[in-house]
Fold these 2 entries.
Entry 1:
Amino acid sequence: MKLDLPRYTERFGATSLHGVQRVFELDSGFDDGREGRSISETIRRVSNEEISEIERRMAIVIPIKGERLKLLEGVLSGVPHDCLTIIISNSPRQPVDRYKLERDALEQFNRFVGRNALILHQSDPGLSDALREVGYTGLFDQNGVVRSGKAEGMVIGMLLAKMAGKEYVGFIDADNYVPGAVNEYVKIFASGIAMSKSPYTMVRISWIYKPKMSETGLYFSKWGRVSETTNQYLNSLISYYTGFETEVMRTGNSGEHCMSIRLAELLSYSSGYSIEPYEVVNILEEFGGIIPTVHQDVMDKGVEVMQVETRNPHFHEDKGDDHLREMTVASLGCIYHSKICPPKLREKILEDLRNKGMLAQGEEPQEMPKITPFNVVDMRHLARVLTKATSFAHTE
Ligand code: GDP
Ligand code: CO
């Protein structure tokens, strides 16, 4: 892959937030005696050797809740062979056992491609028992089972990725219509990691277009309605501390992103759909230099957040207006409730949500439960006790 180096960077304590980088070439070939890594001062070539080396050390987590199987099958086919695929499902098991259908589809797929994959249902009581046994209970609801929610699924995926000895974990939604786009996301993840200078790294996908159907045909819009608002407030938060307005954040709601496990295991996560923007907020809270941190090594080495614009457009399921409202309130809510959110910004968020009719007068966005870092989990212990989870399957 050939992509440009970050053109500008916002530095916030130990955190570097890089501006969007573009892809020039999806596949830039093998090394075999070719020109070196940097073709110029501004473009970086990441060879196929480098990419596959990183893919071998990467798990791809696919959170899924009741998506159409055809879409899941397409996504599976787009994930590079050497990655470990991990599906975390929250699909209904009655009247039809949708989870079983997903597992069957995965098993059938793997019979043909011989790939390594894991699948698990997040509300499996055996999983909750295992988590209780290792003392990691931040994912539980009042009944002591793992809550419903996308973030909850993603955290379980990260636990399994670490348990399997992977160094990187990437996320790809299951409702993507274009397998080729899925493949590009993973190549971008690997290229970003190859370019990063820190072991504490995050790579977020910025979609070139999010096409919509209109009366006159396909319209290639640049921005989703939710992400535009989320990015605006993330940027305001950054500007408040730096004193300079910025547009650096473009990927506040990007479900497609990856992290080094070394970074992932230190973060706190916000429940449900607020997970993606809160990852950025939490990085600023922890490593932005505003609040002291116990992780001196991270402060020394720095955290890098990269954003890379795809070549493929993003086509996914249209989930309707209620979903947009839920996502917007959850996204702005996690900024609103952050301990580093200045009072002025808080007021603006309230006003905006009320003007949009998403909150009633006098109503505040609900504070989402937080999930504490998983670096405390004893992985060997977890691997031993996870055998209780009956939905857990490993296919090869
Ligand atoms: P959007 O694309 O950001 O608008 O959100 P989606 O509704 O498409 O959700 C993103 C991905 O998360 C999809 O693959 C969903 O099936 C999946 N998802 C949503 N809720 C849950 C959940 O509670 N648990 C799990 N494991 N996955 C979920
Ligand atoms: Co979607």
Entry 2:
Amino acid sequence: MEQPRAGLTVVDHPLVQHKLTLMRDRSTSTAEFRRLLREISLLLAYEATRDLPLEATEIETPLERGRFPLIAGKKLCLVSILRAGNGILDWMIDLLPSARIGHIGIYREPRTLQAVEYYLKLPDDLPERDAIVVDPMLATGNSAVAAISRLVELKARSIKFVCLVAAPEGVETVLRAFPDVAIVAAALDRCLDAHGYILPGLGDAGDRLFGTR
Ligand code: URA
């Protein structure tokens, strides 16, 4: 698939696009939004882990011995940007049960839209791990840059960023600061509004996921 920009992979699989459209629809209920997020998170995890190295391992099927591929002991760390990131994280864990989990609490200061960190808990062996940061919305990019800066500071082996919807502004901000970070998104939307919301977007992902306002 042709990509809009180096460093950004937009997953244009029909299942992902269909589910995202249902999530965007304002009449979609909280329960349905959650279910769709679960399904789409698994599909995004599939894309984000596409380059995991495999190694041939000898096993015995019921019929004969042979060498077959297994993931080559790759150590992962899934990092959720609280709170909406947990909506993706919870389901990615299903697919990657051995991954370590980190949480970074960041809120957007409503006037300046700057990222403010209020919580941090990460595994201490990050230099041996490939980090996948998850947050449904890549809007201004300020939270993403704050989270990624922490992981760079703590020497994560590599860093990917997985989101549902990205704004061009957020993608530029992240890739200008961290050209080596790979972003995986279900969509690249048009722009941000004056409050830093993505247009057309899907609204406030945390509120829609948790049924708050
Ligand atoms: N955060 C959200 O939840 N939605 C947006 O559109 C932007 C940031």
